[in-house]
Each structure stands twice: as structure tokens, then as C-alpha cells.
Amino acid sequence: xxxxxxxxxxxxxxxxxxxxxxxxxxxxxxxxxxxxxxxxxxxxxxxxxxxxxxxxxxxxxxxxxxxxxxxxxxxxx
Length: 77
Description:
Shape: globular
Order of helices and strands: EEH
């Protein structure tokens, strides 16, 4: 387990390759708590990947699913 410095940003790289389309991507329960809440909603990998692939992986308008669409607001996070 990595302990993150709350004073400084970091870059995270997920290590998975082609998860099943029914896979829900979310942080491990033991890594989130009141002091370190999840920053993104869980999402279905198949739906996300299919939409990104269909859009040719470009950043387009709202109809194209982007990772920021899953970001939780501070109000709820």
C-alpha cells in the first residue's frame, strides 16, 4: 500500500489491461475513508471504453464520455 502525501499532488497509473466489459472500475475500499474520499464515481469499463473508441479517443463535447464525467463534486465527495 502506498501512503500519499496530502500536501502534494501525484500521478497515478492504473495497471490493468483490457478488463472484462462488465468490470466496474473504482478505488479499493481500504484506500478510501472520510479523510481520503473517492474522487471519481465507479464506472463500467465496457461502456467507457466503447464510447471512447467510438469517438476515436478524441476530447469532444459532452456527448463523448470523458473521465471527468465521473468526477465527484466536493459537495458529495
